[in-house]
Amino acid sequence: MRPLLVRLHRWFGLGTAAFLFLAGLTGAVIAWDHELDALLNPSFFRSATPGAPLPALELAKRLEAEEPHAVVTYMPLSVEPGHTWIAMVAPRLDPASQAPYALDFNQVALDPVTGDEQGRRMWGKASLARQNLIPFLYQLHYTLFMPTKMGIDFGVWTMGVVGMVWLLDGFIAIVLAFPNLKSWRKSLAFRVKRGGYALTFDLHRSGGVWLWGLLIVVAVTSISMNLGAQVVRPVVSVFSTLAPDPFRVVAPGSALTPAQATAARERIVAEAADVGRREGIAAPPGGLFGLPTSGVYGVGYYAAGKDHGDAGLGNAWLMMNARTGEVLGRQIPGKGSAGDIFIQAQFPLHSGRIAGLPGRIAISFTGLVVAILSVTGVLIWLKKARARRKPAKQTRTASTIGTRERATN
User: Fold this and answer.
1) What stretches of 27-180 adopt beta strand conformation (E)?
2) CA distance linking residue 382 with residue 390, whole number of Å
3) Does 225 fall in a domain?
4) Last residue of a domain, one of 129, 151, 167
5) 120 belongs to a structural domain
6) Is residue 143 part of a domain?
């Protein structure tokens, strides 16, 4: 059995090494995406105008008036003092062709006091420019910038399958790391003084053993981040009842016209606080997202600047019918079946935010370890491959010499 496991570990590791190296390094960086993005682009995130900020709906109206081909798809309902109001936008449909207008941006930052634009960018663009660097790394981490063809997002599926192979390989690796009870100390040691191949081997084996639990958590959650609807929810539903995915609900009826969408947005925002209280949510409405084509608006409940959730299971969200205000779906941290809570925990676990600052540090460190394990695994394979080729080469050389001697005699 062990020779089979060694072979599986070798090929699983080689097959996923490049993907995990990229995912590990980018994951270590994007654990601090907001902080690094703000550090690199202060003019996009910081506003120095004194005074009370304009209402979020007024800022959205001004933005859409300045850019009539764009519709706001996400906006914060409040901002921290000294910060810009940053909205996501999408192209409207051209009434003549029913095709989306061409836009070269999808994120805009406004001064919340004056409404003046401070910056715009295409979030997730493949660019190493300062303004695009952190969103680029975030997109690279999840999609590898692979295309979507025939309705298949190849980047999401690739990283999801890599996660599944990695999870299986993680259990194989822990079995191989402890061949017997007598050698358990070796599986936890690092031969630093020996250096060279011995240290490379220990970094791979012992490094994986020390962080095995965290690595398994990251592997499981990486599957959830990419193939939640396709794989994780169906598997979890076998063991626990799941509420419908609130972020995939669609309201009945045709798409809203721009005028209807604006009116619905104003009504949803006006009623959001009362609806939240009826649902038992203590936090204030903090953000609004939705597309008029779906007839649904989502309201996130959190204080200004806490849109990612800094600890626990994240923020509460309610999905509402744009026409009626009816709550169509809800995700309230800690509420629901065991399966619902497991699903809620996936992003907080993957990002480390479930444990606050210490969790993010742990995830960032784990990302670096994943990259190291990928590199050391390839180095170990190369050394062993060379060692296997050397006897074969010597055998071929001896055979050739023998043949020549027999021919001479």
Assistant:
1) 70-76, 85-91, 107-110, 117-121, 148-149, 152-153
2) 12
3) no
4) 129
5) yes
6) no
In angstroms, rounded to a whole number, what is the distance separating the alpha carbons of residues 177 and 238?
Answer: 32
With beta carbons less than 8 A apart as the criterion, state whether 354 and 312 touch.
yes
Residues facing residue 236 across a β-bridge: none
pTM: 0.89
Per-residue model confidence (pLDDT) at position 210: 96
Give a yes or no: residue 36 inside a domain.
no
Indicate the DSSP class of residue 129.
S
Domain count across the chain: 2
Domain that holds residue 75: 42-129
* Alpha carbon distance 163, 175 (integer Å): 19
Q: Which residue among 72, 105, 129 closes a domain?
A: 129
Beta strands in 241-366 (DSSP E): 285-291, 296-301, 316-321, 327-331
Residue type, 278: R
Q: Express each pLDDT in 24-47 by its tens digit.
A: 999 999 999 999 999 999 999 999
When pLDDT is averaged across residues 326-338 and rounded to a whole number, the result is: 95
Which residue did the predictor score with more confidence, 340 or 258? 340
- pLDDT value at position 329? 94
